[in-house]
Amino acid sequence: MAQEMEKRINEVCIRILASSRSELYLHMRFLDVALSAFSYVQNPEMGTLGTDGVGLYYNPSYLGGLYRQGRVFVNRAYLHMVFHCIFAHPWKDVRLRKKRASRLVEEETADLLWEVSCDIASEAMIDSIPLHCVRRPTSVLRRETYASLGKKRRVLNAEGVFGALLEDKPDLERLRRLKEEFYVDDHSLWSGGKRRAPSQRPKENWDDIRDKMETELQSFGQDSAVGASEGILEQIKVENRDSYDYRRFLQKFAVLKEEQQIDPDSFDYGFYSYGLSLYGNMPLIEPQESREVKKVEEFVIAIDTSMSCSGELVKAFLKETYSILRETESFFRKINIHIIQCDEVVQSDDKITSQEELKAYMEHLELLGQGGTDFRPVFTRVEELLAKREFTSLKGLLYFTDGKGIFPQKMPRYETAFVLMQKEYEEIDVPAWAIKIYLDQEEMEAYKEGITDEH
Predict the structure, then answer these.
(1) CA–CA distances in Å: residue 74 to residues 34, 61, 81, 113, 185
(2) Which of 41, 72, 153, 266 gives a 20 to 30 Å CA spacing to 123?
(3) Separation between Cα atoms, residue 252 and residue 229, nearest integer Å
(4) pLDDT tens digits in sequence order for the chain, 455 residues long
(5) What distance, in Å, lies between the first and last C-alpha atoms of the chain?
């Protein structure tokens, strides 16, 4: 009898969730694959609802109570968990952010801050959707929270909310009020909290769903009949940005060249043959005193010193670049690097030929400019240097900027990367021939403060 009752309860719960999925799909068809990505799993031990990216786990009593409040509440909970997965909240590595937060607030507060930020980001997206199937009156606390965050961040994704809340140095009590207001689901299953079969790869599956959603919204967004699709697309674009390992990226500028050093993998065949001929069975092995290696020798670093770029963040960027240049396994001992400062005109051009010179430059760094932003003078200057044969194998140029300026029309003969420092997560259009690398301003500030991730 008890088993029959449990079976009936489970069937009713699945019908509730399937009905919610169907209603959401009818109004937001671009979410079709995302809405169908969950399998429904009963879990009486869980107090509310939760997901690990594969299953949607539910407590039957809680789900039934939510349904009695109204279908809108079930729809919102379902969509809340879908947005968590679309924006990869369960798989974010936020150790660096929490380290920085723990310097400003108590450790317990820092841990709670990220969870609250994810819930606010999902709920803010839902509250922006003008559809009756998810619409409910917003509380005073919600309105105040959105208004306060909106003054600091244009895009309310989890990272942006985290940074904005951290600026206010919230106390634990305030975060608990926010958690209570925005709480919908249990996050204990995030980041592998539940064991999964090897065939289940939730992060990869949701990455694929997000990629397809971006394509569909860009192609057919105007037909989606949802005023919030533009906001969803904006956040998806932010999440889909390619992330680069800065050290590995600089290797794109490497050249193959001989360097004076013992090569244990090769030896002089003359000595080898001479030993065999002289002793019969005793070759003489002498390691080569030079070896061919692929390292970075020449490139240009351009720095946007206009009013829109923070001097402290520029110094943090150069400090990180300097730490990479000190690694002898990545760069030749003798280097040829030009560091060009430019706003609307070239303000300075410093040639660096060794680690010692780079260290001295860093110690006495003075930023010049603070005018408007025009990227063209830097490219003109590099062409002049090439004409004077200042470079023999220039592979690339790194331009550190916020991306708000006049780009050259013509593609240069070397690779160009615009290293974009951002706090607002807005999309910047650069010429098709250029590479975009986004740096998170808050992560740069963490680096500036000396906070690094050991892992």
Answers:
(1) 16, 13, 11, 25, 11
(2) 41
(3) 37
(4) 677 888 888 899 999 999 999 999 998 888 889 999 999 999 988 889 999 999 999 999 999 999 999 999 999 999 999 999 999 999 887 776 777 777 777 777 888 899 999 999 999 999 989 889 999 999 999 999 999 998 888 888 888 899 889 888 888 889 999 999 999 999 998 874 444 544 467 888 998 998 888 887 877 655 454 555 667 877 887 777 765 656 666 666 654 444 444 455 555 566 667 666 776 676 656 555 545 444 566 789 998 887 666 667 777 777 777 776 665 455 555 778 899 999 889 999 999 888 788 888 888 888 887 778 899 999 999 999 999 999 887 878 989 887 888 999 899 988 888 888 766 666 778 898 988 887 766 655 555 555 555 44
(5) 53
Q: State the greatest distance between any 2 C-alpha atoms of the chain, in Å, as a whole number.
A: 96
How far, rounded to the nearest angstrom, does the alpha carbon of residue 318 sit from its chain's CA centroid?
20
Distances (CA, A) of 29 to 36, 40, 229, 335, 384: 11, 21, 11, 55, 54
Per-residue tokens: 69? 């409040």
State which amino acid sits at residue 380. T
Per-position DSSP letters for 235-250, written without gaps between them: HHHHHT-----HHHHH
Judge if pTM exceeds 0.85: no
d(CA 25, CA 35): 7
Collapse the DSSP code of 172 into the 3-class scheme (helix H, G, I; strand E, B; otherwise coil) and give the result. helix
C-alpha gyration radius of the chain: 28
Alpha carbon of residue 183 to chain centroid? 25
